[in-house]
Amino acid sequence: MNLEEQRFIWYKGQIFLMITTLLEVNKQWDHQFRSMKQLYEKQLAEMKAKLDVSERKISELEEERHRQHAEAERFRVLGRERPLQETKETKVLSEALHEMKEENKLLKQKNASMIRKKEHYECEI
């Protein structure tokens, strides 16, 4: 076997080694990507569930506030002030509603961020 044939065989071996390494790296990347995608999809589903719960609570609190406002108006028309306990309850409900709206806002932002991350990773494929 001459020198040229030996070099050819050596280069062929090097190319095979590089291809094997590249395939292994690609396999690892694919596994990591699928794991990340699965994690983001799970987190996104959890965020959506939290957002749904938050929106339901906000709706319930708004309905309760509206009901209490109607009762307060009825008391006013009757010439009486609302009992102190109801005033406190209204304040507590208003604060809870405000907190829920803030939480809802944060969940929507987090949800949007998760969607962007998911889209970004899908684009990398």
TrEMBL record:
GO terms for cellular component: cytoplasm. Keywords: Coiled coil. One of its GO terms (biological process) is cellular response to lipopolysaccharide. It comes from the Eukaryota. The keyword Repressor does not apply. Residues 37-124 form a coiled coil. This is TNFAIP3 interacting protein 3. It comes from Accipiter nisus (Eurasian sparrowhawk). The lineage of its organism: Eukaryota, Metazoa, Chordata, Craniata, Vertebrata.
